[in-house]
Amino acid sequence: MKSKIIIIAAIVMLIAIMGYMAWDLFLSAPPEAKNPWEYKVGDLKRVDSSILNYIEMKPFKPEMEEVHGVDVDSSGTIYVVGKNRVGIFGRDGNLKNSFPISGIGTCITMRNQLIYVGILDHIELFNMSGDRIKRWKRTAPGSVITSIAVNGNDVFLADAGNKMVYRYTAAGKLLNRIGQKDTVQNIPGFVIPSPYFDLAIGKDRTLWVVNPGRHSFEHYTMEGHLLNSWGSASNSTAGFCGCCNPTNFALLNDGSFVTSEKGIERIKIYSNEGVYRELVATPEMFAEGVKGLDLAVDPQGRILVLDPAKNQVRVFVRK
Amino acid sequence: MPTRRVFLQNLIRGGILAGLGLLTGSLVFRSRKGGTCRLNISCNACSKNGSCTLVPAFETRQFVWQLDPSKCIQCGRCATECVHTPSAVKCVHVYAMCGYCDLCGGYFKPDTKTLNTGAENQLCPTSAIKRSFIEDPFFEYTIDENLCIGCGKCVKGCGAFGNGSLQLQIRHHICDNCNECAIARKCPAGAFSRVPATSPYLLKGFGKQPLSGDKTGGPESF
User: Fold this and answer.
1) If A220 and its partner were Cys, which of A207, A297, A317, B84 is the partner (CB 3.0–4.6 Å)?
2) CB-CB: which of B123, B152, B222 is closest to A195?
3) Which of A106, A213, A263 faces B105 most closely, judged by CB atoms?
């Protein structure tokens, strides 16, 4: 009787061992292989979101295939340009008007009741109804127009393809080129490794241009004399990360700078002297790898962020 | 009748044998014939770049293994799973996409304080990337394939902070083109596939442009 129990127990144990072996061989998942060379980019993006002084409001969708540029006029009307279309929206995101353009609109600005649209290598001017008023000649071979700013009778174009800023009259006549490398005038020259090259007119009616490859802002007179520059490369929040940042910027009503970056996707504010002040949006708020977060500031100080990954205009307001 | 049947059987046998003989003969002939390189790619196996005679086995291949950089997640398995040590997967540099940046995300560790070639600053575990000054503020980055192990660390850094000009590719002068690629079997992203031997490289961004020679740089397209 005793030997019978032992035999049964041995058989049960044998079956259990065979079952385990079969499971181990054929059914168990292999252990997750650890990458000995893993580069944890995500660690660089971790930021405590409780330090933010801005909150995100309800975004709106411009309903176009791709979005590339945003601007706001003095009444708070929002202009968005993208592939083959311009959209005009009210302050709350309601569509006011929309009209087609022929090509990929890369940037937009509205001044003096005229909408200036950069379409890859040239500029087109539209009235508020969407009728084309004028088409400027291609600025130069290989041009990629990435930003437009208007100051009175002067129109400034940032050309990422030729690494140059052009100053035109409102009638489309080229006045001068700005930012060419000049050792006598101590102008370092623009370094544009990727097609993100932004400019804006400051409070004192002078020109601010991003030099992304040098991680700096450069301050020019209308004639192209370099006044000063600021900015430093760093992965820390106070600097500009990666190969070429910031990609875009806008000026707040007090003259301070709102900047956006790629690589570590974040929106930050610097004082008008270039001192880091605060974070507006953390990398967790954006899709990984999103580039070209164009910025605009409306008269109420709301920061509008054009998010090409979500195809939205996202709105950030101070708490 | 039986004689006619035997004759027909012998005729079929003879036909099959003759066919096999012709097939073998053509394969032997093709494998002995030298070929012209169709890669148009800089290659440590050859200094002629574009007019070399590759190892004959390559010429007889219809399809070769390649990995798609747009699917690659830089998991590190290319370095550990290949039957070759170091792996036949190498980092290649698409110069036409490169910004020649001073602060290169594929070369420097993220916490680098000073931008110099000190080993403590380099992201590459084997120092396989060479950094050379061109003119202020541009630097050229070249890959030493003898040192590259195909871990993809630089590829991740370049993709995250730069234009993504550093990409992993199987180098065919090293690859044995195994029937079942050991890396393809383990690749979690399914990035490996067989591609025609006539266009054996899959490069992101600038398609099948030459990897060297064209060093114009400049912005990527919208």
Assistant:
1) A207
2) B222
3) A263
Taking 90 as the threshold, does the pLDDT of residue B9 lie above it? no
> How far apart, in Å, are the Cα atoms of B203 and each of A20, B95, B177?
46, 11, 19
In this predicted model, what pLDDT tens digit does every residue of B109-152 receive, in sequence order? 988 888 899 999 999 999 999 999 999 889 999 999 999 999 99
Contact A194/B111, CB-based, under 8 Å? no
Rounded to an integer, what distance in angstroms lies between the CA atom of residue A183 and that of residue B49? 39
B147 chain-A contacts, CB cut-off 8 A: none
pLDDT band, residue B2 (cuts 50/70/90): low
Best B101, B102, B158 residue to mutate vs chain A (most A CBs within 10 Å): B101
pLDDT of res. B1: 54
CA–CA distance, B83 with B11 (Å, rounded to integer): 46
The answer to whether residue B151 neighbours chain A at the CB level (below 8 Å) is: yes
What ipTM was predicted for this assembly?
0.77
Residue B96 sits in the same domain as residue B22: no
Asked, for residue B3, whether it belongs to a domain, the answer is yes
| Cβ–Cβ gap A33/B80 under 8 Å | yes
Number of domains chain B contains? 2
- For A259-311, the pLDDT digits (tens) are 999 999 999 999 999 999 999 999 999 999 999 999 999 999 999 999 999 99
All residues of chain B having their beta carbon less than 8 Å from the beta carbon of residue A241 are 161
Contact B156 A191 (CB under 8 A): no
Residue B208 domain-assigned?
no
Full domain range(s) for residue B22: 1-32
Identify the burial level of B181 via C-beta atoms within 10 angstroms of its C-beta, where 0-12 means exposed, 13-18 middle and 19 or more buried.
buried
Per the CB < 8 A criterion, the answer to whether B203 and B66 are in contact is no
B32-89 residue pLDDT tens? 444 444 444 555 555 545 545 455 445 557 899 999 999 999 999 999 999 999 999 9
